[in-house]
Design goal:
The complex is a heterodimer. Chain A is built from 6 helices and 7 strands. Chain A is of the alpha/beta class. Chain A has a 5-stranded mixed β-barrel. In chain A, α2 links the parallel β2 and β3. The radius of gyration of chain A is 16 Å and the shape is globular. Chain A starts with a strand and ends with a helix. Chain B is α/β, with parallel strands linked by helices. Chain B has 8 helices and 10 strands. In chain B, the strands form 3 sheets. In chain B, strands 4-2-5-10 form a 4-stranded mixed sheet. In chain B, α1 packs parallel to α4, α2 runs antiparallel to α3 and α6 runs parallel beside α8. The longest helix of chain B has 20 residues. The chains are: A alpha/beta, B alpha/beta. Chains A and B meet through α5 and α6 of A and α3 of B.
Chain lengths: ~180, ~280
């Protein structure tokens, strides 16, 4: 099965061509944020204040990297559990967020919002922190430096591997995959 | 009885060395289990995930990076021989200093917040760590260190079953816990089960069980059969590597048990992700 190369920012045309189970290689700028940063972003949205980056067409990567050793752009940088951001995701999707990258399944509310907003959720390989760090070519903190590993960073990635977990048609790799390999007692 | 001394410096140094290594290196039994999983996995996506997990371990070694960015809560089981005296002022502080130094020098992530409910401010040095002390006969100190990530930790569970629920109740609780976690704990996982004791004892046993070498069974035949049966049931869920679907959801199930109250059947389940990070030293 071959990989589909995609670049950020993502257009609706590209997003609607993706189906659950597709393997992708992501190139371009992406933004990192986890629980604490999401809480602040949602507070900004509710207060009608501008966000620290342009959310339209953006991809948010749920990650808190290890510090970069000398000579390296970033430390270990695999995905964190996306479910913890479920409470915040629908609002960001309504604001124009096009893609999320993390690991593990999403709630029905998030899946519904993905469908409604023609967005996509990618799942990366959790725990492959060293392997994935090599796909990150630059990293800079753009907001919330006080959050340390949880700061918002802008990363440039090249051929970052992931799987389409939830497409905009209701497809779900976690449900479909498990059904295929489930066995009765 | 002969007494021997261990100094603050010796403890700090030993703990530091353990935690410099842990987050970077997969123990041999873990690597062997992952390779075997890759061979037996039927799902193409699952096989690909396992290949990349194994490749990741080689890259981590070569590049001197942590296997996973979640270098976790530093957790220690310290078995302190009765014949050993500590000459420092605080054993807990000496251990925390070792963790502090390792996470700084290893460029590992500081993932601890000071207060869980209100401020949640990062402590900036990955302390305090979590230490379980046990006094044992003899004059050795055995320290088992593990770096345990939040993802798998969040999927654990404890339940106080009724004794009437019996073995079927235990199986259902364990399998349901894994089933409800899906891909969140980063399968393929190792499952630790603590049965008996009390609520806290069962939880502790389930955590301790994760440090057992993969391939070792409980020495009690009945519990060994339970370990084998639970592994079969868990792998029948079809969750697979990273939850994408497959035949390998767990690499092993380790059960520990302890005597308990006539009215109780406590059961605890701890899940460990595929970044199996634990190391032991004997001082």
């Amino acid at each position: 099965m071959s990989e589909i190369k995609i670049t950020t920012p993502l257009s609706t045309e590209v997003v609607t061509s993706l189906k659950a189970g597709d393997r992708v290689l992501i190139t371009g700028y992406i933004y990192t944020a986890r629980d604490a940063a999401h809480k602040r972003l949602v507070e900004l949205i509710k207060a009608n204040k501008p966000l620290p980056f342009d959310i339209k067409g953006a991809l948010i990567y749920y990650v808190g990297p290890t510090p970069a050793p000398a000579g390296k752009v970033i430390g270990s940088a695999g995905p964190t559990t996306s479910g913890r951001m479920d409470a915040y995701a629908p609002l960001l999707l309504d604001m124009g967020l096009k893609a999320m990258l993390g690991k593990g399944w999403r709630s029905q509310a998030v899946k519904d919002s993905i469908q409604k907003n023609k967005a996509v959720y990618f799942a990366g390989i959790g725990g492959a922190g060293a392997l994935l760090s090599k796909k990150i070519k630059s990293a800079e903190i753009i907001a919330y430096e006080d959050l340390g590993p949880e700061a918002i960073r802008r990363l440039y990635v090249e051929d970052f591997p992931a799987i389409v977990a939830n497409d905009c048609y209701g497809g779900d790799v976690f449900i479909e995959g498990r059904q295929k390999y489930e066995q009765e007692k | 009885m002969n007494f021997r001394m261990l100094s603050e410096k010796q403890i700090t140094q030993a703990v530091k060395e353990l935690f410099l290594q842990c987050p970077r290196i997969l123990p041999q039994d873990a690597l062997d289990a992952l390779k075997k999983a890759e061979e037996t996995e039927e799902s193409p996506v699952g096989k690909s995930v396992l290949k990349q997990i194994i490749e990741n371990s080689h890259i981590a070694l070569a590049e001197n990076l942590a296997l996973c960015q979640d270098t976790g809560t530093a957790t220690l089981f310290v078995q302190w021989g009765q014949g050993v005296l500590f000459s420092g002022s605080s054993l807990t502080d000496a251990i925390n200093e070792g963790v502090r130094q390792a996470y700084k020098e290893g460029y590992y992530r500081n993932s601890i917040v000071n207060d869980p409910l209100f401020d949640r401010k990062n402590t900036g040095d990955n302390t305090p760590c979590i230490i379980h002390f046990e006094m044992i006969p003899g004059d050795k100190v055995i320290i088992t260190a593990s770096a345990k990530g939040g993802g798998s930790e969040n999927m654990g569970a404890v339940r106080m079953l009724k004794p009437a629920e019996g073995i079927e109740g235990v199986k259902k609780f364990v399998v349901d816990t894994v089933s409800n976690a899906g891909g969140n704990p980063c399968p393929p996982i190792v499952v630790g089960v603590g049965i008996g004791g009390s609520m806290d004892k069962a939880a502790l046993l389930s955590k301790k069980a994760l440090n057992r070498t993969i391939g070792q069974y409980n020495p009690d035949e009945r519990y060994k059969e339970l370990e084998i049966e639970l592994l079969r049931l868990i792998n029948n869920t079809g969750i697979g590597p990273m939850g994408f679907g497959g035949r390998v959801t767990a690499l092993a199930v380790h059960v520990e048990f302890y005597p308990c109250h006539i009215a109780s059947l406590p059961v605890a389940v701890s899940l460990l992700c595929h970044s199996i990070r634990h190391k032991e030293v004997i001082l």
